[in-house]
Structures are given as structure tokens and as C-alpha cells.
């Protein structure tokens, strides 16, 4: 199968020397890319700025901002079977980017933010590829993940609980819950991101084949 996998954070510029970002390390997305290649699939890896070496056989598309990731995803899904949206794409970006460095002053500085485009929500409803979203939650994990599965029009939603600091965003281990449209859910208990990634690739392929019956 042809996988498109997004990974890592995005950076939203404030001025020429500053940006807004988040703590995503990219490890989960890179682990899924490696696991998919290991299982014999083709992989396009669309990555925000991270300190990781991409798997040798992946086609790497490097992006920085949420707008660049948006464009790269729309281009890549023209020819894919599975889209895994593992990236921590910004929800907000500065409403205006200052052309020159903002100088320090002795008063409060108000930064106005505008919503960034939601990549998952922007995908066509009728499509011939399987879509997996990731839900990073600190509370009411199942409720929020199921709501995102519906509003973001995904086929599967993988939720990770960030309330436990030992298995959070930057750590090497996680535990996930997988929610599907048919109300089924599945848990993969705490393990390394490498092991979770292998399990996820198996589950994704089995479910994608059921949905993409015309292709496989
Ligand atoms: N996502 C996206 N475009 C954005 C933001 C997020 O496509 N601009 C995708 C992520 O890649 C992920 C899913 O949406 O697959 C859920 O991301 P998450 O940060 O958990 O949810 P948000 O929509 O940002 O909602 P909230 O921050 O309120 O939990």
C-alpha cells in the first residue's frame, strides 16, 4: 500500500527570529514510517522540524509551517491508499507576521492569533484513501477522541493519554486506544513507540482493506 505519514510539530512564525510551536518530537510518526517500510509498504513522510533521521526508504518531504504541511498533504494524497496524520499541526498561528524583529519594550505585548487550517477537516468526504487521525488528550480521552473521529471525518482515531508524564509526547513509550467508525475500540497497552507502530500498521492495513474494497 502507499502510505502518506505526517510527523512532528509545525512552526508558525511571529517575526523573522521567533515562532510558535509545540513539544512534538516526531518519534511516533517516524516509528510508523519505519514500521510501514518494514512491512513492505511505500512511504511518503511529511515532516515538520525534528531531530530524527528519516527511514532510508521513505520519500521525505520537509515542511515548516502548517500551511506548508497543508499543501504537502493535499499534493501527496492524490496518489495514496492510507493517510496517517500523526503530526502535531498548529491550531493557531499569529494573525500577522512582523516583517522586522519585534523590539523589546517595557509594556505588555498582545499577540493576536488566527485559527490555522485544519488539514483533516479539509480533506474530501468522498475519497479512495483511508484516514487515521491522532488525538492527544489530557482528560476525557475516549469522549474527545470519539468526537474528533466524527468531526474530523476520519476512518480511525488513535488516542494517546498525555495525563501520565511518563508516556507523553516526548517519551519513548506510549499506550494508545484506537477508535473506529463502527463503534469498535481497541487498546494497545504501554510499549515502546516502535512496538506500538508495528501493531498500528497491522491494524491500519486490516481495516483499510475492508474499506477500500475496490482497490484491494
Ligand atoms: N490536525 C490537523 N490540522 C490541524 C490540527 C490538527 O489535521 N490544524 C490533526 C492532527 O494531525 C491529528 C488530529 O487533527 O491527527 C487531532 O489533533 P489534536 O491536536 O489532538 O486535536 P485538535 O483538533 O487540535 O483539537 P484540540 O487541540 O482542541 O484537542
Describe this structure in words.
Helix content is 26%, strand content 29%. The mean pLDDT is 95. An eight-stranded mixed β-sheet has the order 5-4-1-6-9-10-11-12, with helices on both faces. It has a two-stranded antiparallel sheet with strand order 2-3. A two-stranded antiparallel ribbon has the order 7-8. The protein starts with a strand and ends in a 5-residue tail after the last helix. Helix 1 (27-38) crosses helix 5 (193-211). The chain is an alpha/beta fold and 216 residues long. Strand 2 and strand 3 (18-20) form a beta hairpin. The longest helix has 19 residues, at 193-211. Cytidine-5'-triphosphate binds at residues 66, 85, 87, 89, 91, 116, 118-120, 133-136, 148, 152. Cytidine-5'-triphosphate is lined by residues 66, 85, 87, 89, 91, 116, 118-120, 133-136, 148, 152.
Radius of gyration: 18 Å
pLDDT < 50 stretches: none
Structural class: alpha/beta
Helix content: 25-40%
Describe the largest sheet.
8 strands, mixed
Amino acid at each position: 500500500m502507499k502510505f502518506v505519514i505526517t510527523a512532528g510539530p509545525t512552526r508558525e512564525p511571529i517575526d523573522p527570529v521567533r515562532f510558535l510551536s509545540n513539544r512534538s518530537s516526531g518519534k511516533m510518526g517516524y516509528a510508523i514510517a519505519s514500521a510501514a517500510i518494514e512491512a513492505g509498504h511505500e512511504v511518503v513522510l511529511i515532516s515538520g522540524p525534528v531531530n530524527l533521521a528519516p527511514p532510508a526508504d521513505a520519500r521525505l518531504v520537509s515542511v515548516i509551517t502548517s500551511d506548508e504541511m497543508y499543501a504537502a498533504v493535499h499534493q501527496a494524497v492524490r496518489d495514496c491508499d492510507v493517510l496517517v496524520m500523526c503530526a502535531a499541526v498548529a491550531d493557531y498561528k499569529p494573525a500577522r507576521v512582523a516583517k522586522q524583529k519585534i523590539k523589546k519594550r517595557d509594556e505588555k505585548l498582545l499577540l493576536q492569533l488566527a485559527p490555522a487550517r485544519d488539514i483533516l477537516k479539509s480533506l474530501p468526504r468522498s475519497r479512495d484513501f483511508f484516514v487515521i487521525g491522532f488525538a492527544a488528550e489530557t482528560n476525557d480521552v475516549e469522549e474527545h477522541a470519539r468526537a474528533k473521529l466524527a468531526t474530523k471525518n476520519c476512518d480511525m482515531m488513535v488516542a494517546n493519554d498525555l495525563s501520565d508524564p511518563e508516556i507523553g509526547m516526548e517519551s519513548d513509550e506510549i499506550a494508545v486506544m484506537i477508535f473506529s467508525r463502527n463503534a469498535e475500540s481497541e487498546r494497545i497497552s504501554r510499549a515502546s513507540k516502535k512496538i506500538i507502530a508495528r501493531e498500528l500498521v497491522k491494524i491500519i492495513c486490516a481495516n483499510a482493506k475492508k474499506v477500500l474494497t475496490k482497490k484491494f
